[in-house]
């Protein structure tokens, strides 16, 4: 697993744990940074803070383009993977859309349901198309 892949996984851990505990999406970030086990890299912080800052925009796009699914019905892992990748697609010019999508699909394959990789790929592909036409 590459360095940025690890940072994305750690961002997912923070978002997922925060949401599960009923906290703000960055609610466990400070605690994790304090303990630094596993280490929290600056890119992880960028991803978590970026998702929090742009959550309304990201969640709006995900809800609009997830045909037949609401954000609440999505598995929590998928929802937070989608948020991270959508943030990268929309706001990280140094990350190619294909990389953001591929990384999210890989994590969905590893951590979520059998149907999740296809769902994540399709939804993020739509977001990437929108971002290119904007």
Characterization of the model:
The structure is a single chain. This protein has one domain: Orthogonal Bundle (N-utilizing Substance Protein B Homolog, Chain A). The chain is 72% helix and 0% strand. It has helices at 3-20, 29-35, 42-53, 55-65, 76-91, 97-111, 116-133. The chain starts with a helix and ends with a helix.
Produce the secondary structure layout.
Layout: H1 3-20, H2 29-35, H3 42-53, H4 55-65, H5 76-91, H6 97-111, H7 116-133
Helix pairs in contact: 1-3, 1-5, 3-5, 4-5, 5-6, 5-7, 6-7
Structural class: mainly alpha
What's the story with the biggest beta sheet? Answer: none
Give the termini distance in whole angstroms.
32 Å
- Kindly report the name of the CATH homologous superfamily: NusB-like
Q: What is the global morphology? A: globular
- At the first level of CATH, what is the class? Mainly Alpha
What's the overall average pLDDT, rounded?
94
The share of residues in helices is over 70%
The number of distinct helices, counting runs of at least 4 residues, comes to 7
Rg over CA atoms, rounded to whole Å, is 14 Å
CATH architecture: Orthogonal Bundle
**CATH third-level topology:** N-utilizing Substance Protein B Homolog, Chain A
How many β-strand stretches?
A: 0
Low-confidence stretches: none
How much of the residues is beta strand, in percent?
Answer: under 5%
Task: Summarize the helix and strand pattern as letters.
Answer: HHHHHHH
Count of distinct structural domains: 1
Oligomer: single chain
